[in-house]
Every structure is written in structure tokens, then in C-alpha cells.
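Researcher: Here's a chain I'd like modeled. Treat it as a single chain, no partners, no ligands.
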Amino acid sequence: MNTKIHHNFTALYVGNDYDTKKNTIDMLRDLLSNIVCAKNAQEGLEKYNFLSDVDLIIADIDSSKKHDLNNMLKEIRKTDKKVLIVILSEYSNTQYLLETIKIGIHHYMLKPYTLTQLKESIQEVIEYHYNDFQTIKLNNDFVWNHSNCSLTYKDELIKLTKNELKLIDFLISSNQSIKNSQSIENFIFEDLLSNNKRIRNLISRLNSKFQNNLIESIYAQGYKIQKCG
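Model: Modeled as a single isolated chain. C-alpha cells:
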């Protein structure tokens, strides 16, 4: 992935681990022109309120402080639905992951990871959500409009359910990425139940609305959406 510096773009990094912060900030300087740091959730909220144009929040979640950072993000989300949120965490608990999804995060990076992986993930989040072109061409003349979450076929709007729209947006959210059934289920239904059948049924009903399958099943891996190119 080509590195691109995003000028006039402000990131707020919240975390107190010195080595992680130093390495992450050094890496981010290849991507962003303005980075502000806070050592904890309280300071993070204060700096967010002081700044008028935070575009990205990177929260390094210590398991002992996860509730403080969650409360910070919830408070920010009350007035700001657009700021991008990336969480770095060693905490893989499903309940906590669901809580962050409900807050409206854009990426959850589970430790351990390499700086290259983190850099590519943040670059992808930024470019996807701040792309000047909000439409994505899919196979067979379908077009997804990210700004208003709608699907059209040859300029005709396709009527879809709420969960079908969420499914398409989730599959498109990571370029050419295969999503496994569990991650789809967590995102769509936001509960702790595990029932792969409801995902299969949802995808089957959605594909049945088109002459050719829009969503492809990848054996033993998950699902991906058919994009042009």
C-alpha cells in the first residue's frame, strides 16, 4: 500500500504505555501531519474538547482501564458521529468487542501486531472513510453509495432491509477482505448468540434478489463482496 501523508488531518492518540506510544507516533508521522497525545481517558476527553477538528482517535486500551476509555468514546459519540476510532487492545473478550461495535468504532486491532500491519490498517480506514468518491462499483453494474448506504442497479435503487444494508457496508468496509461468519454475526446482530444459520439465511435472501450472487462464499474462510477490478 502506498504511503500518503494526510495534511489538515488531526489524530488524537490516547494511551500511557511509553514504548507503544513512541513507536506508534513515529509510525503515524508518515501518515498524518498533526498528532496530539493524551495519557488517559480524562486527558483525552479534555484535549478532544479543546481541539475543534479531531479526525481520528487511536485508543490504546489497557484491560484495567477499558471502561474509562469506553466512557470517553461514548461521551465523544454523543456529539460527533463522524470521527474515526481505532482501538488497539490485547483484550479479545466478545462482550467487550460488542460494546465497542455499539460505540461505533472503525477498526479493532488485536495485539500483538506489527507496526506495518497497524500502518496499513489506519491508512485503509482513513482512505475508505475520506475518499472523495463515495460510490463503489460492484460486479454486474451494481453501485454502492457509502455516504447514504444505498445500492443501485443501473441507477435504479434496490430496496433492501436494514440488516442487508449493514451486511453490504460491513463487507465493503475492508478492501477485498474476507469476513468470517462470527465477525459478520457480531456486527449485524449485536448480541452474544452464536447461530451461523441466520448469517447463511441473510446472505441467501440477499443473493436471491440478484441474477448473479453479489456475495461470494469462500470455503472454510467466510464471505466477500464482488467488487469491480
